Task: structure prediction
Amino acid sequence: MKEKRVTSFDVAKAAGVSRSVVSAVINGTPGIGVSQETREKVLRAIEELHYHVDAGARAMKTGVSRCIAAFGNMHNPLFLQVMEGMQKACAERGYQILISGKSSEDTDRYELLDLYRQRSIDGIITLDATSYGDAQWLEAIKLVRVPYISIEGYADTAGVTSILMNYRKSMTDALRFMRRSAGAKPIYIEAYLEGASTNWAERDRKDAYANWCKEHGELPEFYTMEAYDEAWAMRFLQKRLSVEEPLPPILINWSVSAVYLYRAAWRLGLTVGRDVLLMAGDDTNRGNAQMAPALSSVQVPYSLMGEAAVRELFDQMERSTRYKTKKLWLEGSIFPGESAILSKRDG
Result:
């Protein structure tokens, strides 16, 4: 015979409380205070009776699924870092995360709107490229009225809440660190994929470098390279060595491109941290500490950005004025590796 399904009524009876109290414990219902002793009784009854919440039925009844969607490029290591922070913030509120991976352009993200209409999710968070600002997507989420947060997208667009990195300050902090540790003005190399300074983040870094040089009475030296062009890195170091030794300190925007300067230095018989003083403006792949020597870098707080995005999303879900939007700027921190310290050059 089919085993009788355990209901919230059974849990309430076993715990000696009302069904509304059981609901308050399970759903975190606002306005119903439950003592710690009562909560423990309910949770113990749930465990002993092996009670499982019917998520679909609960969503139909309450309009709340206790699940949010995270959309991003599954091949991007930053997405995993963001997910770490999102998971932490969701766990605090008893929420689950539906992961939606980007396969081709942005077609997949529109499917999330149907899930919201079906009450399978309560809101959407996307990790976007810093250049992202699609007006059609923004119009779609406003039409559906889905709670929505963009991480790194829509920096210059009103009407959407964005969690952003303060790249201006991170560049100034990196320059201050290099001036103190390397004892000289760094030159700046901007690596790019689809054109130099094509988005707000790279423009902010470049402007911050120019302003820092001006404030210190220095002439800016700015170069660009394609992100994975190892031949360019070799030519650059060879040319600088032909006219200047020791080499000036180098600040590059991306750690993934700093790898090619490491390789070029090795092929030229140079040692990073002694002959080549180098720092990166990010730690995208979290491999900086494993490089030899460890690459000095700016730690971009992607995990914290994921946490902040979830908390902002909950705020949207709980207030009536959903589209009172804002831009939340987070700061990075310096990882003082061995690659940009003057003492290495003396050793």
Observations:
- The first helix runs from residue 8 to 15.
- Residues 161 and 325 are 5 Å apart (CA to CA).
